[in-house]
Specification:
Layout (H helix, E strand, L loop, with lengths): L2 H9 L4 E2 L5 E4 L4 E5 L2 E9 L4 H8 L3 E4 L3 E2 L5 E8 L3 H8 L9 H17 L7 H11 L3
Antiparallel strand pairs: 1-2, 2-3, 3-4, 4-7, 5-7, 6-7
Length: 141
């Protein structure tokens, strides 16, 4: 098991492959990856971060901040890369969402709700009125 896989398992995170086929943990603001056994963060066109704040979060790790520039939409953006981060700080900076883990009672309630919807002939999560409108608009039985 690689360092990234063990991190993902410990903090309930999803691992995906980037366009080069390397494993990453994607987030809203950036992604995490491992390089030579160290946890790294890459944020492209992210909101600017104060160097003081980044230094506090990175701790003993190193980081690089690009120039602050404007995107075509007019918003300020900055590229940031950091190496050797503590896991919790990296997850926070990248904006990674944890996988949801359902309890047995939540799982049973969802199963019962889905079974009731199927028995009633409804689409789960859609009101009968919206379902009728969709059938009338787009054709169907």
């Amino acid at each position: 098991m690689t360092a990234l896989e063990s991190l993902a398992e410990r903090y309930r995170l999803k691992i995906r492959r980037d366009e080069c086929g390397n494993p990453i943990i994607p987030g809203r603001r950036g992604h995490l990856y491992c390089d030579a056994g160290r946890l790294c963060l890459m944020m492209l066109n992210a909101r600017p971060v104060q160097p003081r704040r980044l230094r506090e979060l990175v701790g003993d790790g190193t980081f690089w901040q690009g120039d602050i520039s404007r995107t075509p939409e007019g918003r300020r953006a900055q590229d940031i890369q950091a190496w050797g981060l503590p896991p919790k700080a990296a997850i926070k900076l990248a904006g990674v969402k944890r996988r949801r883990v359902l309890s047995e009672s939540q799982r049973a309630a969802n199963t019962a709700r889905l079974a009731a919807s199927r028995q009633a002939g409804r689409i789960a999560g859609v009101s009968p009125r919206a379902q009728r409108h969709a059938l009338e608009t787009h054709g169907g039985a």
